[in-house]
Amino acid sequence: MSRTIRSIVGGDRSFDGARMFRSTNPARTDELVAEVRLSDERGFVAACRTARDAQRSWADVPAPVRGEVIANVGRLVHTNAERLARLIVQEVGKPLKEARGEVQELADTCAFFLGEGRRLYGQTVPSEMPDKQLFTFRDPVGVAAVITAGNFPVAVPSWYIVPALLCGNAVVWKPAEYAAACAEAVYELFAHAGVPSGVFNVVYAAGRETFTGLTDALEAGLVDKVGFTGSSEVGVRIGELCGRHLQSPCLELGGKNPMVVTEDADLGQAVEGALFSAFGTAGQRCTSLGTAIVHESVVSDFIRLFDEAARAAVIGDPTGDVLYGPMLDEKFAQSHEKHLEWIGAAHSLHGSSGIGRIGPDNPRAGLTGDAERGLYYHPVIVSGVRPGDALFDNETFGPLVGVTPYRSLDEAIELANAPGYGLSSSIYTVDPAKVFRFRRRIRAGMVSVNNSTSGAEAHLPFGGNGKSGNGSRQSGQWVLDQFTRWQAMNWDYSGRLQKAQMDVATVEPDLGYQLG
What residues are annotated to the active site? Predict the structure, then answer.
């Protein structure tokens, strides 16, 4: 049974937006999951103002106690894990096994950060003067506005929300409309864990209204940090907006993630990694494989094995054991179809019996879902792509991957860096020298060796460079720098004014001394 979902500001759901969004099951598009009342820019600003009013009291709660609240969230996630996973399957079409993994990632994030409440360390620093002490402190930034995509509807938001709350900030979260039911569930877990009303707020809004609301909230001094996961194009606009207010946003953007397969690689292992990297979540991850860059001596064998693996893969109903299910939402299906138009005469196709949407006129053997009701698409492997091809240069967010040959490792690294993204990367080899040469020269923020381009652990930094982000990092202790500001304090108890660099004692050395 579907339900109506509204924004939650200060614990109040009374705000009734004028526009309605229908969140449907992408595996059965005629099945309504939720009707979502969309707010406007005024609702977003109101949420930021509510957060501002609530933040100071939350910051006054001792950090170890805030950590206990995060621990409560983790306990509730474990209690509700299967329900939450099945909601992810229903609303965004992620296979059940992946959805369970995503819920575990939310639990892992809570497990890591609950202890950080006791480790928000500053330092006591020795002074250059007597009877004087120097200290550093981490303080919360204030109000964090968090805007996320829906391909990871519970895990990725937690990378922002959990550390932001732990550090004493208040949060206004704008989730993807097509994952609103998942967002509602996440809110309930945090609310029942003990997060006070007004400290965590959820606003459902379309992109235009969100950007206008964020602009107004920044102008009014109501937002101190922006976190955004989404496209590189929108990330550029948010970066420009925040820059006008001398703020540095936390941007986690798109990727054109390369996988280099060397001549000494285990091809079976490389194909297994490529299959998951390229087609897990129907290729709708920022860390999905964009181009497999394969040594010319093994590229034919790689393509043959990759083609066989993709053709044999089970695609369909996400409640079953499948490689991937439907596209997340109709808008991503439409975008994917435009990307398929980039396939040219110089390219060769592999991986399935067709391209585009699977249906009675474009069938795929072994499909387990209802092709007429679900947004199911063929896996597509395109060989012969080169720099300058739209397929090589751009993110394609769907079950579409390119293969490019190379001769030398230097050429492979040049090809890997060429599109200008820098999120994730992978190399398959048994040669440590190749591994470390690749690591030194690849511009990606993350490197995998003999592993998929996709996959994150809660205690490692996650983030990219170039078109993939502004160098900010999520997860692990590194994200604390996104949601705290360093404050330095000096305390002079000498009873007199001691001036730095001027009243410092000196030692007279004999620098002309030579051993006899």
Answer: 252
